[in-house]
């Protein structure tokens, strides 16, 4: 074949596109129940936005961003994640917190394509802006679990940790750096570089040897200030009250982004294999100020659509049956065309065949569309104020009066 899609991208053919639309619609409905409004931001953003927000030393910025110069010479990035663009839009648009916002759309990261992980992928995300209490952290997880339950996904765990705040995390970072410095030669090459620039990134390393080394290192819980410790304990106390029990504490969970503070979390499922994460998020109370706005507490998450589709139960959402209408002649169309409007106005799924084509050809076409019913509109039936309806599953055909057709099909 002469033309193929770029490596790391995928086509959503009709069946998968239908499932994706279903997931997105349930996400929209769930967000609305929790008082969220949709926001849409550009796919293109200034490179500097992600350097400042996501972090210059993160894997995303160091290795995965798609960068290019436009014709005016400005360096732009295809957005690798949604949060920085949302915060930029809120500040630039003059929206005053509190705000509850959600978004859907494509993100771009130049990483090794793997099962369910693509260079162009789609995220479903939320941002809660201007709410600082621990209940809000629990409410965010409650929204996520409500959504996942609504689409039938149950086999997953939520990993939880706290990173502390700007008052207590520096002491932990110094202790971690001191411990890992004595193990520097045993660290992978990437972590040896991280040790100099940002030791916390080492906790995010997936290298098995690096993870074993950290098992004996300092733990963030031992360095938390009283406010952060109380915030995390209170957050955990709300979870069972909201029916959230499928979580566990993960001391090395830091998420691969620099702006997180306090609560962080990740959604994982063993059904996805070694790359088992399908979303995550956390609190980022300093990001507004870092991007030039007023200091504003905030928390959010993003879920990967492609990975959710891998977890979606089969048959969880059945597509409405297709009704195929076969007009046997142009004259029959003139006399019976109101049937089309009647059925579609009732939100039934209708495909109209080639007017005047022989019935055998139209039935073949209906079968190709996997129609459940074929409504045959012909001269003899119309004289009696009726149509013929063929059940494509059983082959049975019966005559139905036009005024009774809608109720019959519904």
Overview of this protein structure:
The chain is an alpha+beta fold. The protein has two domains: 243 residues, BirA Bifunctional Protein, domain 2 (2-Layer Sandwich); 88 residues, Anticodon-binding domain (Rossmann fold), CATH 3.40.50. It has 17 helices and 16 strands. It has an eight-stranded mixed sheet with strand order 1-5-6-11-10-9-7-8. A five-stranded mixed sheet has the order 13-12-14-15-16, with helices on both faces. The chain has a three-stranded antiparallel sheet with strand order 2-4-3. Helix 1 packs antiparallel against helix 5, helix 1 crosses helix 12 and helix 5 runs parallel beside helix 10. The chain is elongated, with a radius of gyration of 27 Å. The relative contact order is 0.12. The mean pLDDT is 88.
Fold topology:
Layout: H1 14-33, E1 37-38, E2 44-46, H2 47-55, H3 59-64, E3 66-69, E4 75-78, H4 83-93, E5 99-108, E6 120-129, H5 134-150, E7 157-162, H6 169-181, H7 189-197, H8 200-203, H9 208-214, H10 226-241, E8 247-249, E9 261-268, E10 277-283, H11 287-290, E11 298-304, H12 305-311, E12 322-327, H13 330-336, H14 338-345, E13 349-352, H15 359-368, E14 373-377, H16 379-383, E15 386-391, E16 397-401, H17 402-409
Parallel strand pairs: 1-5, 7-8, 12-13, 12-14
Antiparallel strand pairs: 2-4, 3-4, 5-6, 6-11, 7-9, 9-10, 10-11, 14-15, 15-16
Key descriptive features of the protein:
410 residues; alpha+beta; BirA Bifunctional Protein, domain 2; Rossmann fold; 2 domains; eight-stranded mixed beta sheet; five-stranded mixed beta sheet; 39% helix; 22% strand
């Amino acid at each position: 074949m002469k033309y193929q899609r770029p490596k790391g991208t995928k086509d959503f053919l009709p069946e998968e596109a239908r499932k994706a639309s279903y997931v997105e619609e349930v996400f929209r409905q769930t967000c609305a129940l929790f008082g969220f409004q949709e926001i849409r931001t550009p796919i293109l953003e200034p490179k500097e936005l992600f350097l400042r927000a996501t972090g210059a030393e993160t894997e995303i910025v160091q290795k995965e961003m798609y960068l290019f110069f436009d014709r005016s010479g400005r360096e732009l990035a295809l957005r690798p994640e949604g949060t920085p663009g949302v915060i930029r839009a809120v500040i630039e648009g003059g929206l005053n917190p509190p705000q509850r916002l959600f978004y859907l759309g494509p993100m771009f990261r130049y990483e090794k394509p793997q099962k369910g992980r693509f260079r162009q992928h789609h995220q479903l995300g939320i941002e809660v802006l201007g709410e600082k209490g621990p209940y809000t952290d629990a409410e965010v997880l409650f929204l996520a679990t409500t959504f996942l339950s609504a689409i039938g996904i149950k086999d997953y765990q939520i990993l939880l940790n706290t990173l502390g705040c700007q008052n207590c995390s520096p002491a932990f970072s110094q202790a971690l750096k001191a411990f890992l410095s004595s193990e520097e030669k045993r660290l992978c090459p990437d972590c040896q570089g991280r040790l100099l620039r940002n030791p916390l990134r080492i906790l995010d390393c997936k290298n098995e040897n690096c993870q074993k080394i950290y098992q004996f290192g300092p733990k963030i819980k031992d360095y938390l200030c009283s406010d952060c410790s109380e915030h995390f304990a209170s957050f955990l106390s709300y979870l069972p009250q909201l029916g959230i029990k499928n979580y566990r504490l993960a001391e090395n969970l830091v998420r691969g982004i620099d702006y997180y503070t306090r609560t962080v979390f990740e959604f994982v499922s063993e059904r996805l294999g070694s790359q088992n994460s399908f979303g995550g998020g956390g609190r980022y109370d300093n990001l507004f100020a870092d991007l030039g706005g007023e200091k504003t507490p905030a928390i959010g998450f993003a879920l990967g659509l492609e990975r959710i589709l891998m977890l979606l139960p089969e048959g969880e959402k059945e597509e409405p049956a297709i009704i195929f209408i076969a007009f046997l002649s142009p004259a029959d169309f003139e006399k019976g065309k109101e049937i089309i409007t009647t059925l579609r106005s009732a939100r039934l799924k209708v495909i109209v065949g080639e007017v005047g084509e022989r019935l055998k050809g139209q039935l073949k076409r209906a079968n190709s569309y996997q129609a459940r019913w074929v409504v045959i509109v012909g001269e003899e039936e119309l004289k009696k104020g009726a149509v013929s309806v063929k059940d494509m599953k059983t082959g049975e055909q019966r005559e139905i009066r036009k005024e009774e057709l809608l109720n019959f099909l519904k």
